[in-house]
Amino acid sequence: MAEKIDELFAKIRKGARLLSPTEVNLLSENMSQSATQSLMIEALEDFTKRTREDEEWEAFHARDYRLQVLNDLKDSNFEMVYPRVDRFLATNDLLVA
Fold it and tell me: What are the sequence ranges of the domains in the chain?
């Protein structure tokens, strides 16, 4: 994989302006891996050092966040968009399966 990444960067340095979907996927996977690798290592180190109080605090936050999301969904007015979307679909002769 490293060789493919090196070839891809060489291609970009030579002036390539358009990449194939495969090359874009390869590049994005490599960038996300390099960007998150140090964060993952740090998170795993911190995860093993958790105390009982840390676990309880995280559980409290998870339950609180769940309640907030459920309340937001309950108070949502998402259904009011349906007529507008139906009109847009009908106007542009689009079908949704």
Answer: 2-91
